[in-house]
């Protein structure tokens, strides 16, 4: 069986009509990878597959105890009209011939209920017989009682590794895979037949006692049925009306600001803290303004002052050096004459000395007006060479921080001003509390009625057992030679034979299932010798693991990742045992596994789980190295892009790229 595509129309989070192609492009690329954030519609997609295939018998994640029509009504997209639909196209090969099927399941709200329409098309032509009997016909394509082996949530499978849940899973799978439900039904039918035969031809006294017991049973059954109807009416009418009224009051309470009113102490605290933070920021800025900050406004003048001071310093040095240079020049010329130096050289040097002294004398005569003290000069230099830059940076940082504080204070003020007064919300709050208390009382009454029903059913069971004993006693008194006794005797033998047949069939196939599960587990484990053998009890279906030393290995000794891999191996092995080439769909495939176990699952299970594998993953699971390792087997990729404002999901081509582009 190959799923070609699925079309979701106003179903759950999926607004409008969206079609996803699911056909693997080639046998060596069986994986269809669908990414999405939590709450983005992955589980809804898996629910849609099962709902379209199995209808009222689908194992849907969020249906709970809802009636099927109520679930359909609630699954219609909130922004849509009154209708929704799911359509699946798939192929199925029987005796070498491929047939194409289209399933179309649609429903609309109709008054107080919801009306469903279901249609099956085979090779493009409507098939009314298939549509009318699909609940039984679907077993030929995808049996509902083994669907959980192929369509499952990776985060929830770890529970199957526990003793109790693994036994239940294995038992249910073996019963369904081997068709033992027919054997069980035959045994029940034989018991009913035996009971009816035992009630025939009773003597008057015992017959009267049996008749009285049967009358009592009928009265008890009517009483239990009446209690169940009364309990259902309580749930449907009184509790339903009260819940709707409570939801209306709750909505009104929220619209009036009830949520803010409940958080008023926190809102007032945040408003006070925001005001104080704003005042503290203003004080810090004032302190900064009281220091050297204003000098930033006259930085050009300060730089000009520094330049002027350097010039005046040169003038002072020129005055101080003039007489010193004059004496040095005379001494130098005299020394050269003493050494009989060339007169031309002496004249040139004298000309240079005279010009230099003249220039310095002219510089020294210039007026100095600043006469800055050395400590002032040092402060000016420090300001221009770093202090003013640091002050500017601090000021910018504080101003940016102050803007954020102002924005936070404005938001806090809006929340504070939006908190309604006690008088505004008092009436609605009182009605809300009254309805909440009424709902609690109705729930208590509903639970008490459930307990009463349980007591009556236990009493009914005791009466049925007493009647069975009367019938058995009567049958024992009749002797074993008449026809009725022979029928009963042979019926009991048939039941014994059926029991022996059942045990033999289970024992034969359990060994094969053990081997398939063990092979699957060893293929997934990173510790190849951790589990060397496993066994399944044919009676209790209890799973027992054995380690490398041959001793029993309890599931509690396994790590969380190893337990989850054991659960995956159970599903994989049982799916292999079914012998059916069915697609596999896994929501949150890597679950809570650590990195090593995730890599083993990516490399050793996901590419080989089936000929068609639908993976519904978050961006934190199949990403990075895991995505790179899985890419050679990926045939198609999609991204479930959820719009929080619109409250709807759109299916986009691509995987992480689609998310980045969005």
**Radius of gyration in whole Å, from Cα?**
45 Å
- Average pLDDT reading: 81
Q: Decide which structural class fits the backbone.
A: alpha/beta
- Can you give the helix content as a percent range? 55-70%
Shape by Cα distribution? elongated
Portion in beta strands = 15-25%
Ends: how far apart? 34 Å
* Residue windows where pLDDT falls under 50 for at least 5 positions: none
Number of helices: 18
What distinguishing features does this structure have?
15% strand; alpha/beta; 662 residues; six-stranded mixed β-sheet
Description:
The chain is of the alpha/beta class and 662 residues long. The chain has a domain at 280-418. 60% of the residues lie in helices and 15% in strands. A 6-stranded antiparallel β-sheet has the order 2-1-4-5-6-7.
Could you provide a short overview of the structure?
With 662 residues, the protein is of the alpha/beta class.
